[in-house]
Design brief:
heterodimer; A: 199 residues; alpha+beta; four-stranded antiparallel sheet; 9 strands; globular; B: 137 residues; 1 helix; 7 strands
């Protein structure tokens, strides 16, 4: 019995110590409101993609989770989640082939590497393609060499982790960003096939 | 005795069969009622296939292509999925380039007849990985 209490006391102390030592924000966090606060906001009608974007065909994304990240001259961008809570970056190239694509990761993977996506009607025509990145909320766009980009709903300033442009125009930097908890966020910009191979 | 026993088994079997048919019918009806709106059927043309960096796997010509997906087993390098019309007049219908290891999807609307899909993975240091690619009609 004494052994039981001793073990229980050690266990409880360890749990308390771990709780005290864990910073409010951790690389291992899986709370979506921590890594992508925009997904914890209320959805509005302007968040919904047009019907031509078949969320089921691009990863089974739950329409109720989709939030707009904004639009540029040819493309619109959203973030959303699948039924198993993976987080997805979605791009729709308006008109033409009505290309819609997504890139999805688990929340812990997103937390360590973010999401990036180049999509469109082929690398031969960058004017009909888009390159986009969405980063965890504690990573500043300036740390990867990207300007902060306002979105159509004015939420970028609070969620500020999205950037986009035509492929090859963003000039982003590879980056290893040290976090307060000692972990490292690793950013790797994408390149089109035939460009410098990714490491 | 044997006959009676056999007869008893036959009646039981008949009841069981009728019960099974009824249960099956109810099950099918329930499935039909609960089925979501039809989505394009998806076909794997690479299922954990071992490839070298830079290799391209191709679905061959499909009656109809609306989309596709790619996922590589490793988290280094990049992966791509491209739906296209082959030469002459090579035309990309839709393309997705992402970091290796993500679940990546691309689609276009409407679907394209007699098109192809191809997927690839590449990394500067070379090597191999397992890739899974699908095409949707």
């Amino acid at each position: 019995m004494r052994k039981f209490f001793t073990t229980a006391t050690i266990g409880a102390t360890a749990v308390l110590a771990l709780t005290a030592a864990t910073p409010a924000w951790s690389a291992n966090t899986t709370a979506i409101s921590d890594v992508a606060p925009i997904l914890a906001t209320a959805q509005t009608a302007s968040d919904l993609p047009p019907a031509v974007v078949d969320l089921g065909a691009i990863g089974g994304i739950d329409a109720d989770t989709v939030r707009s990240l904004g639009s540029d001259e040819i493309a619109s961008y959203w973030i959303g989640q699948t039924s198993n809570s993976d987080i997805c970056l979605i791009t729709h190239i308006r008109g033409g082939n009505e290309v819609a694509s997504s890139s999805c990761r688990t929340i812990p993977e997103f937390n360590l590497m973010g999401l990036g996506l180049i999509t469109g009607e082929g690398s031969d025509d960058p004017s009909r393609s888009a390159e986009a990145y969405y980063l965890p909320s504690d990573i500043s766009l300036s740390e990867i060499g990207a300007p902060v980009q306002a979105d159509v709903n004015g939420r970028a300033s609070t969620d500020g982790a999205f950037t986009s442009g035509r492929p090859g125009s963003l000039d982003l930097d590879e980056a290893d960003v040290k976090r307060a908890d000692g972990s490292t966020f690793r950013f790797q910009p994408l390149s089109l096939p035939g460009e410098k191979a990714a490491s | 005795m044997t006959d009676r026993h056999t007869g008893s088994r036959s009646v039981s079997s008949r009841r069981l069969a009728i019960g099974s048919v009824l249960a099956g019918a109810v099950g099918i009806a329930a499935l039909c009622l609960s089925a979501p709106a039809a989505h394009a059927a998806s076909t794997l043309y690479a299922n954990d296939a071992r490839i070298n960096s830079g290799d391209v796997l191709d679905s061959g010509t499909r009656p109809s292509v609306s989309g596709g997906s790619v996922n590589v087993s490793v988290s280094v390098g990049q992966q791509s999925i491209t739906n296209y019309y082959d030469r002459p007049g090579y035309t990309v219908l839709s393309e997705n380039v992402t970091a290796a290891g993500t679940q990546a999807f691309t689609s276009r609307s409407p679907a394209s007849p007699n098109a192809k899909s191809k997927c690839s993975w590449w990394v500067s240091v070379g090597g191999y990985a397992d890739i899974t690619c699908s095409v949707s009609d």
